[in-house]
Structure formats: C-alpha cells, structure tokens
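ok, trying the design again with the full structure, not the truncated one.
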C-alpha cells in the first residue's frame, strides 16, 4: 500500500457542497467511518447562503483527517475539484456527493483494485434513495467500463462513487473547468481512451435522487437547456477524438480546459 509521505494517507476524498446542511453530516460521517482509515476528507463549501452546514460538520471537528474549506465565490463542484486537486498529494482521489452515503467497505474494495494494478478508475454498484433515505432501486455498473464504452455506452460509472489514480487526473487536466455540470461524463470518456475503468459489483454507495439535486433541479437537471447544450458539445468533441488519425493528434483532445474563474479556497475552523 502506497501513501502520501506527509500525511500517511492513501486516498483523498473530495466532497463539495452547496446549501446541503440536512445531508452533509451523514455524508461526511460515512467517509470518515470507512474501514480504510488512511484517508483524508476535504469538504468544500461553495459559498452557501448561510452557515447552517458548519453545525452539521461540528461533531467531526476533532478528526484530524477532516479538512474544511470555503470558496471565495460560488463556482460549482467541477471547478472546486480542479482547485482542490492542486493540493492533493495522495496517490488516489475519491469523490463523494454531499447528499449521498458511502456504505461500509466502499474505499477498501475500490482501493484493492487500484493498488492491485487492475484498474485506474473504480466505481461500484449503487442504491438509489429518495429525500427521506428510502430505497427506490439499485443499479449495477458494468465490471469492464472500457468494453461498454466501445459498444457505444457513455455512462459506465457513477462519478461520485468513484476512486481514481491521481496521475490520471493530472494527465487529463482534471475536469472541464468552464462549466458547472455534465463534465464528469466528459472526464470518463477522456479517461477511457488511455486508462482502465472498472466497477465493483457490490452495492457500496447510496445515491440520493430528490428534487433539489443537481441532476433533478429544473435549471440543471437532465432536461435542462444548460445540460442539453453541454451534452451536444461533449458529443462533438468525442467525434473529433474518434476522427484523430494518430496518438499525437488525439492526446491534446484528451486534456480538459482549465478553470475559467479565479477563486480562493479559504480554511474554515468549525469550533
């Protein structure tokens, strides 16, 4: 097992949130309770309208693995992840949504594939839950994501359930830093060109689907104008990659545009 020399951690889990005080505490607790304790959890508040979220994290304030930051302006979770990645020194990076729950054993099972050299990005099967936490369904993702992508499928992992090698994010420039949504799929499409995408078949994540979530809210959901527009642009870029005649022509098309907003990450004391 490899870990950061400075922190002793093997994986940094990045958890951005905006105005999600009701679910933030359980989400953070589900990461800190993992049986792979060699982790760091970075929670980033995206300029929420009030400070109610601080109370949700206060029970974990004494955990040295928890780092809490706040953006200097509201920028969206993709730009936040790019900014946080600049300070990550662990070999692996995991993701967690503020309204979801990681089940016991999630990181242990995913890191086993990564540390065993069998994958570069690992997702898992997940359970869908509603606003009250009631189970509404289950979904298994394909064990070998690259194969399914070659067959035309674009979604082979659930982004917030994934753990990825830091070097993959570095080589590909992280996420598209010019948008607020949709670029997780773009990242997977780019990663699949060079790296192995796998999924654990066990249900290790609880994914909340509720009216205020990013994928369901009218202004940002799957039917929104913004998301449809980005999906079209993403498809056009993917066509350009397929038409590349050489590796030299392809590689620049795999690097994401950097953040288009300059903002700061300010440390937050919970006490």
């Amino acid at each position: 097992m490899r870990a950061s020399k400075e922190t002793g951690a093997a994986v940094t889990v990045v958890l951005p949130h905006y105005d999600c005080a009701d679910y933030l505490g359980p989400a953070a607790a589900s990461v800190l309770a993992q049986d792979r304790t060699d982790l760091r959890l970075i929670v980033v508040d995206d300029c929420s309208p009030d400070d109610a979220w601080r109370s949700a994290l206060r029970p974990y304030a004494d955990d040295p693995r928890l780092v809490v930051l706040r953006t200097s302006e509201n920028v969206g979770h993709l730009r936040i992840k790019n900014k946080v990645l600049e300070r990550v020194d662990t070999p692996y990076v995991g993701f967690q949504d503020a309204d979801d729950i990681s089940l016991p054993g999630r990181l242990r099972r995913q890191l086993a594939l990564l540390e065993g050299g069998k994958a570069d990005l690992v997702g898992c099967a997940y359970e869908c839950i509603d606003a009250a936490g009631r189970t509404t369904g289950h979904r298994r993702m394909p064990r070998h994501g690259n194969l399914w992508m070659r067959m035309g499928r674009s979604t082979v992992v659930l982004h917030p359930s994934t753990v990825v090698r830091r070097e993959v994010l570095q080589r590909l420039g992280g996420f598209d830093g010019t948008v607020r949504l949709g670029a997780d799929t773009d990242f997977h499409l780019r990663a699949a060109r060079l790296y192995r995408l796998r999924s654990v078949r066990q249900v290790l994540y609880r994914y909340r689907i509720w009216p205020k979530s990013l994928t369901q809210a009218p202004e940002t959901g799957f039917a929104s104008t913004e998301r449809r527009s980005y999906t079209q642009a993403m498809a056009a870029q993917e066509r350009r990659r397929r038409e590349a005649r050489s590796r030299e022509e392809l590689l620049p098309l795999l690097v994401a545009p950097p953040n288009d907003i300059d903002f700061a990450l300010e440390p937050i004391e919970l006490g």
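Keeping the full-length input from now on. Residues 5 and 90 are 8 Å apart (CA to CA).
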